[in-house]
Amino acid sequence: xxxxxxxxxxRMLRDHLEPRGIDDPRVLEAMRAVPRERFxxxxxxxxxxxxxxxxxxxxxxxxxxxxxxxxAQAAQIGPEDVVLDIGTGxxxxxxxxxxxxxxxxxxxxxxxxxxxxxxxxxxxxxxxVELIVGDGTAGAPTRAPYDAIVCAAASDxxxxxxxxxxxxxxxxxxxxxxxxxxxxxxxxxxxxxTITDDDLGGVMFVPLVSGD
Length: 212
Ligand code: SAH
What we know:
This protein is about 30% helix and about 30% strand. By secondary structure, it is of the alpha/beta class. The protein has a single domain, classed as Rossmann fold (3-Layer(aba) Sandwich). The strands form 3 sheets. It has a 7-stranded mixed beta sheet with strand order 5-4-3-6-8-9-10. It is globular, with a radius of gyration of 16 Å. It binds S-adenosyl-L-homocysteine.
């Protein structure tokens, strides 16, 4: 079983990630290391390495592997970095980020999802991930600043709190847009304060829900 899953993960890299431009060796290594099947409901484990989102319950989804890898690569995460992950969901993206960064703070508004993610992450030994239940549009000010902020839920604009909690030379990668179309955007702040946005392509995420 373990060998089959490892082979499935290798196939995922070869068929879905490398051909689509994921070439950062640290990101590929992280995608190879995280057992995605542990983060999906048991009845869906056989589909864990197909490149599409899967239902998590509560109307939410675990992002497709390519999107997790593309987001992580665009966020240019270094080994000393502190990362804020908005929308813990299954915890899968948080685990991938934990391989790349020194520390990951991950926020989820649905307490049951956060609890489930926490159990899986603990069982797998991801001690550098801290989970918070709350509204990610406010960020997590007590742990700021963040070298990178990544988000797995779409909104019309990047919340001000994220910019306030971003370190100098920090990166935000998040989907912007509504039900009809979203773009994955990277916003970077340079040392002199200049803001640069890059459009990383069309995506489809669940909405970022705030104010509850
Ligand atoms: N990164 C996750 C993807 C989960 S989908 C994974 O790898 O599985 C996006 C998640 O964002 C959902 O679980 C949803 O409940 C959560 N979410 C939506 N709006 C939010 C908000 N304002 N604050 C925190 N989490 C939010």
